[in-house]
Write a structure and sequence with these properties.
The complex is a heterodimer. Chain A is mainly α. Chain A is built from 6 helices and no strands. By secondary structure, chain B is mostly helical. Chain B is 65% helix and 0% strand. Chain B is elongated, with a radius of gyration of 18 Å. Classes of the chains: A mainly alpha, B mainly alpha. At the A-B interface, α1, α2, α3 and α4 of A face α2, α3, α5, α6 and α7 of B.
Chain lengths: 170, 200
């Protein structure tokens, strides 16, 4: 004998009666209990192996960064713990006045270097202004335009002469 | 407590391989179940499911939770992967489930998920599952797909329409026809409760 379930019976009965809503509801209820098909056990491993390189490698890279940060923090902690022991080491620790003096010398050198840089830029700025003023004068502008026209005509003539010369060789 | 899909996606995008692994474990069965119902070939279904996951992971950054559930997004990719394959028509599919109900079932007994909880009695579930699988195998692939999405994944018509790219009316029609055909097959196979004939 074929054994059925209540949901199954409700579904087929509703289908036979043409009761669309009941049939739909019973079918969903019955079908939800129908076991899903499963892939092979190693499916996940195969997917991850076939995944793009970025997917496979980002995690180790991230772990690398985490390890580096953790190691740096650990080493900082150890160094801080060992810091008082420096007093007993035969090292010459500079005095505060020497540090201030050196810092002042370095600052002075930097200021001088900066001053020279500003002077060079000031000269270039003045030069730019002179050129701008000169170009704005009508005589000089006309002269520049005339020079450009003469240059263009000279280039055209030279090209023409060279072409004639090449033809004469053939 | 299990993480939500969206959290897993965020972690995966941050480079967490366990998050990728969890996403695969969470959806390998629904995706494979859908794909194997469409293409009707177990090995091919594994390959296509794998392709679907790889595609999903490759474009994971484009997933937006505002546009819908992650599972639906994944189903859509799986659907398109199957469609591309069927359009190419490169490999003919071979049915694992005999159409004749008297021959018994093909796929379910061998590959059904053993962990799937079912309140049904084992013997009843086995024979009914076989009959249902045999009936499904005789349906058009598009009917099988919408029936699986509706019946096993419990999706709404609108969600199925979004996944398959079909108009809502077509989805309803496919579900209606597929269900009718399936019921007709089961009645013909002797599963009719009261000896009724199908209406319509």
């Amino acid at each position: 004998m074929k054994r059925r379930t209540p949901e199954f019976d409700r579904w087929l009965t509703a289908e036979a009666a043409g009761d669309e809503m009941r049939a739909e509801a019973a079918f969903v209820e019955f079908f939800a209990r129908f076991p899903r098909l499963a892939p092979a056990a190693d499916f996940a491993e195969r997917v991850l192996a076939a995944a793009p390189v970025a997917v496979r490698r980002t995690a180790p890279a991230l772990w690398g960064w985490r390890w580096a940060i953790a190691s740096a923090l650990a080493m900082t902690g150890v160094a801080a713990w060992l810091l008082p022991a420096l007093r007993w080491l035969p090292l010459e620790i500079p005095r505060l006045s020497e540090i201030v003096k050196t810092a002042a010398m370095v600052t002075g050198a930097l200021v001088e270097w900066f001053e020279v840089g500003v002077a060079v830029w000031g000269f270039l700025l003045r030069l730019g202004r002179w050129v701008t003023v000169a170009i704005q004068a009508p005589e000089i502008a006309a002269g520049l335009a005339g020079s450009a026209v003469i240059g263009a005509v000279a280039l055209y003539t030279l090209n023409h002469l060279l072409a004639l010369e090449r033809r004469s060789w053939r | 407590m299990a993480l939500a899909d969206e959290q897993l996606v965020t972690e995966a995008l941050g480079g967490s391989q366990p998050a990728y692994r969890e996403l695969v474990h969470r959806y390998e069965r629904p995706v494979f179940n859908l794909v194997v119902r469409i293409v009707h070939d177990r090995e091919l279904a594994e390959d296509l499911s794998q392709d679907a996951f790889v595609k999903a992971f490759t474009r994971l950054a484009t997933y937006r939770s505002e546009q819908g559930k992650f599972s639906n997004w994944l189903f859509k990719i799986a659907h398109n992967t199957c469609l591309d394959h069927l359009r190419r028509g490169a490999v003919p599919t071979v049915s694992l489930e005999p159409r004749d109900p008297s021959e018994g079932g093909g796929i379910p007994a061998a590959v059904a998920d053993p962990d799937q909880p079912s309140p049904l009695d084992a013997a009843v579930a086995g024979s009914l599952a076989d009959a249902l699988a045999a009936g499904l195998s005789g349906l058009r692939p598009e009917y099988r797909e919408v029936l699986v999405l509706r019946g096993q994944e419990g999706l709404a018509y609108e969600e199925i329409a979004d996944i398959t790219g079909l108009p809502l009316g077509t989805v309803k029609t496919y579900i209606h026809r597929g269900r009718k055909e399936l019921a007709g097959f089961l009645i013909a196979a002797g599963w009719n409760p009261d000896g009724h004939a199908l209406s319509g």
